[in-house]
Design brief:
about 375 residues; alpha/beta; D-Maltodextrin-Binding Protein, domain 2; 2 domains; 4-stranded mixed β-sheet; two-stranded antiparallel ribbon; 6 strands; about 60% helix; elongated
Length: about 375
């Protein structure tokens, strides 16, 4: 009797032949049909198709960071010193105060001047006091009020004959790298890498779980780790477009300097994207609904948006919180990106930040694989 090598299998009303033995686990017919037929390649291409079919995702990944950089760059651009509006009630004080070109002095009646100060139309009110003194009314918690007080007092004292004992002169320097837009672009880059990795992976995984697609995928010969690796590989390819788009805008529109090595910057972006990708996989490993995943992702990202130095320096927070802030992946990413772009730091100078990012990657990815729910 000859050996049986195949058994008939009925599939959708047609006869099919299925070889006996275990199904191949190496990506199907990759060797026969080339690399394009490999399961990992097809899964990675699927990630791109899902992304390109979502106009909202394209907006948040590419357009939103550009709009944010343009708006904040214009709002906080370097400008000459602002002329401050102040009020006084006597012509003598008005003449003295007008000697300072940074003060816009308005002579008003007492009720009108007090009303202007209360409503914020002027930063300071100067009134004559007893024995030739001057009384300044201003809010010392308002930076404009403090500056107006300093300028007004200087003008009054000089009008009264005060002579500075030491002559001084100013030498103005406006160096690219010290502007707010230079500080902002690396922060937006880090924030965009975090958002696109966590939101992109989290929503795609939870949506596939919700629609029972994962249940169908694990019934195929696909190795399970291929599915998760496809997300990380797609992130690496998209990384080139995301980073290049935002950096090109900053360099050509706002002349943001690039003092570090492009190769070092590329490596920093890759490690950052992989770290946040692993964190996104961990967040989505157990969530069953979009609402649950959205809540978890906001819970993870919102504190980092605030404390990690995206829009202002993380040094503003108390010293007791600094060790915790420095241990966050977004803080490490932004600090490393700023050091490379603005200071020309190499990998050795940012090794501490790289270690923090690597630690998040090494911890989050294995835990995500361990906890991942396929149904």
């Amino acid at each position: 009797m000859s050996d049986i090598t195949a058994v008939p299998e009925i599939r959708r009303g047609e006869a099919a032949v299925r070889p006996l033995g275990p199904a191949p686990r190496d990506g199907g017919t990759a060797r026969e049909n080339g690399l394009g037929a490999h399961a990992l390649v097809q899964l990675t291409l699927t990630r791109f198709r899902e992304f390109l079919r979502e106009p909202e995702a394209l907006f948040w990944v590419f357009i939103f960071p550009i709009l944010l950089a343009a708006g904040l760059g214009l709002a906080f651009r370097n400008r000459p010193a602002e002329v401050l509006k102040i009020a006084t009630v006597t012509p003598e004080l008005a003449r003295s105060l007008r000697q300072d070109k940074l003060l816009d002095v308005q002579q008003l009646s007492v009720p009108a001047a007090e009303e202007a100060l209360r409503t914020g139309k002027v930063a300071l009110l100067a009134e004559p006091g007893l024995d030739g003194s001057v009384v300044y009314d201003f809010d010392n918690t308002n930076p404009e009020g403090r500056t107006a007080h300093m300028l007004a007092d200087r003008a009054v004292q000089r009008a009264a004959g005060r002579v500075d004992p030491v002559k001084t002169s100013d030498r103005l320097m406006r160096e690219p790298g010290s502007r707010y837009i230079d500080f902002l672009i690396p922060g937006l880059l880090g924030m965009n890498l975090m958002g696109s990795a966590i939101w992109g992976m989290g929503f795609a995984i939870v949506d596939a779980r919700r629609r029972k697609l994962m249940k169908r995928l694990i019934a195929t010969p696909m190795p399970r780790h291929y599915y998760l690796l496809s997300f990380l590989l797609s992130r690496l390819v998209m990384l080139v477009i995301e980073v290049g788009f935002l950096l090109s805008f900053g360099i050509f529109v706002f002349k943001v300097p690039m003092r570090g090595s492009p190769a070092d910057l590329a490596l920093l972006c890759v490690v950052t994207s992989l770290s946040f990708g692993a964190l996104g996989l961990l967040i989505a490993s157990r969530a069953r609904t979009i609402e649950a995943a959205s809540g978890l992702m906001n819970l993870v990202m919102m504190p980092m948006w605030i404390v990690s130095g995206v829009f202002f320096s993380a040094q503003r927070f108390p010293d007791m919180l600094q060790p915790v802030i420095k241990a966050l992946p977004l803080t490490a990413a932004i600090d490393a990106l700023r050091a490379n772009m603005l200071q020309g730091a190499g990998l050795a100078q940012v090794s501490g930040q790289l270690m923090v990012l690597a630690a998040w990657l090494v911890v989050c990815f294995p835990v995500a694989l361990k906890l991942f729910r396929w149904r």
